[in-house]
Amino acid sequence: MTLKVVLIALIVIVQTFRSCQDNPIKPEPEPGKRNYEWKLDTLNMPMNYISSIWGATPDDVWAIGGGGTQYDRLLHYDGTKWSTYTKEVIWCSGLTLFGFSADDVWMGGGAGWLERGAGIWHYDGVEWKQNYVYSLEETYYSITIEDIWGSNSNDVYACGEITFYDSTNNSNNWRGFVLHYNGKAWEEIARADNNSQFIKIRKEKTKI
Predict the structure, then answer these.
(1) Residue 99 pairs with which residues in a beta bridge?
(2) Checking CA distances to 174, which of 11, 70, 116, 144 falls within 20 to 30 Å?
């Protein structure tokens, strides 16, 4: 290698080094970091508790409790503060919330003392309405919707349990169930034949 080639190579290396110092490459943020800042919100919910939270955006978040009364079970966050939702009376003792958008949100739980069964409510962006009450003709103690999930607005699932009182053994028996909504109506698509409680539901490919 000639002296001329060596000198040219040294000049290129020095220029590259100086360029890197003048314009350093910033490392990419570490993937998976969760540098969130949590703040404490104290909510006025006498005799109540938060069962489920769902939000369409950071300034449109719903929270539901399974206790309390029909006047303080549902809360809404507008990005600044939480407030009790009182536009409609919520008879559902809500346990679960799930939605697809700000005007397509589902809520499930018990139907309240007005109607025996499990209540499913829907929010259309304007108001909450009772969409369906799941009940049985046979004798039972209670029915509860534990979870709602869907892949789209025409493919929504709900699960929960039916409580039967066994007077012979002075105890309760539970039967898990699954409901499906096709965009128009709800129907029962499965019920367990053994003691069970269905708490969460998801769909993976074709399996529920």
Answers:
(1) 105
(2) 70
